[in-house]
Amino acid sequence: MQLVIGLTGSFGSGCSTVAGLLRRTGEYHAEALSTPIKEEAERQNLRPDRDVLQKLGNELRRRHGKDFLARQAVKAARKAAPKKHWVLDGIRNPGEIEALRRLFPSFYLIAVDASRDTRYARLKSLYAGNELEFDRDDQRDRAEPFAHGQQVAACVDRADVLLINEEDCTGHARVKRALEEKALEHVGLMAAPGSRLPSPRELLMHLAYSVSLRSSCLKRQVGAVIAAPYDSGARVPPGVVPGSDEFAIVATGYNEVPSGQDACRDQYEGECYRDRKRRERPEAINKLGLLCSCGHPVLAPRCPKCDTDLGAVYQSDKALDYCRALHAEETAILQGTRTGGPALRGTVLYATTFPCLLCAKMIVHAGIKEVVYVEAYPVKEATEFLRDARVAITRFEGVKAQAFYRLFKSVLS
Known about the structure:
- By secondary structure, the protein is α/β, with parallel strands linked by helices.
- The chain contains 18 helices and eleven strands.
- It has helices at 15-23, 35-43, 50-64, 68-80, 94-103, 116-123, 131-142, 152-157, 173-191, 200-212, 264-267, 273-278, 282-286, 310-314, 328-338, 357-366, 380-388, 404-408; strands spanning 4-8, 28-32, 85-91, 107-113, 161-164, 223-229, 247-254, 348-353, 370-375, 392-395, 398-399.
- The strands form two sheets. A six-stranded mixed sheet has the order 2-3-1-4-5-11, sandwiched between helices. A five-stranded mixed sheet has the order 7-6-8-9-10, sandwiched between helices.
- Strand 8, helix 16 and strand 9 form a beta-alpha-beta unit.
- The longest helix is centred in the middle third of the chain and has 19 residues, at 173-191.
- The model is unreliable at 232-243 (pLDDT under 50).
């Protein structure tokens, strides 16, 4: 079976490093989705810096479709190495993922990620120490407010596997070898589903995502699971050896309105209450006579000319204070205390997104020792609060929920 591996991640994360590691095994042919962009820059005699390449990539997707760069990479791979496995590097728009999933039943997406500070340290010399310029490019790369733009954050959310690459591979054979081993382990699982069991963390995060499906939120379904290692003081079931990787699930939670309250979809006829409150602002915004970046007047939620989300550009907040729901971490902690189960002190909380500051306060007060999260939605103040309280913060790494059954269910002969 021919495997097609896609790679996505913020620039500086190490996608190209992973592509190179797989290519050097001799089993994989690598193609970069950026190749047509660079060729276009050369044709126009433009300097191929990040700003120019981003604009050209957006223009190619706008003119030829969101999946244009993916289709070009597939065409090149078919011509160069029709019988090898493929690695397609540089996926930056969800349309490219959708196209590759349609074309190849054996397509898997790996997200390679690293923190903002780690990535800036790697690219500092390229930016001549200009952090503002780096942050501008990074924000644009992660989430441009129009359909054909770069939306790396959305691509990472859709990945089947998440690899964390925080260490510097340059000149460090041991670090590069460790990254290669992680990549090859997961690619091996893609080639032979069911060839290993899920780790406890993969299982618990899968459960957190499953729990999130109970949320009626119209914006984002978030799930949380609180687990206690059996060596943490929780009651040990018969036959379980303390100190092993076994665990007890203490509580679960998902974002939802308080008990007895109607969900927004019922109370407000399928409309988010936050959106209802935000809708009260456009008239005031329109009176200012603002223009979209393309020159069109701001008179609608999305620009009819370039599809920019004008609300995201001109409204300074997301009206989070108006949200009627309890957060997933809140409901899990409340469940753990209301049911009279084991104390939460020393437990680990698995959350599909990074906690907000309010939830961070509850986590610290409950005595939870570690937070494991997937979606990099960090609030600086929440991060600092957890670290000051010596709560470990761990980015999840491994098989994500959407590929869980596909990769861990054994294929019986």
